[in-house]
Amino acid sequence: MKSFFALALLLWSFSGLSQNLSSQELLDNAIKYHDPNGNWEHFNDTFTVVMTMPKAAKRTSSISINLPAEYFSVTSTKDSVTTTYALNKDKCTLTYNGKVLDSLKAKDKNMTCDRATLYKNYYSYLYGLPMKLKDEGTNLGKVEKRTFKGKTYLVLKVTYDEAVGSDVWYFYFNPKTYAMEIYQFFKTDEHGKEKPDSGEYIMLSEETLLNGIKIPKVRAWYYNKADKYLGTDTLVED
Question: What pTM was estimated for this model as a whole?
């Protein structure tokens, strides 16, 4: 009987530990799961993502991120059109169906270097999570236990300095492994309050190794409002 109570106390202690983690401890555990060798800082790889959406043609994108060289490119094909946005440090190159565009022709195709920067930030952020939560301007909020679609998670609230962004994000981690399984964001009003019917949530499933980092292969996007399905990004292994 004594050993039974000792075991129960031990199990209770581990359970309490997972529920009472600080935000920094939870993030550190999640990064240890996804990037145990600290490879994100030196990330240099090319990967392919296929986007499927209801009632729309699929889009296939080849994405190159080389953080040490400050290089990024995304080449996307949809229907008969292929576009490339490339940033090599401060140099921007825009290509349409294999032809490099000057500024006037790029404008005609609605292609801009600002959009290239937007794509760079977008893909680097999503595929660099949760490591990107250590970036300057990121504010870690409290950790809470939350049930989403019948499963319990440790949830980390994240806000950003005004210069970075105004959305409020929630990251859902498996309480046993600390794998990131969902993230969700909400827009805010002029007073900084969340708009409950705004934003989206993204369900993550399966995993692959990319530069030694555990990366979710499938991202299914939904509106927070009415759980409306938007589309799915699938990382395709070559």
Answer: 0.89
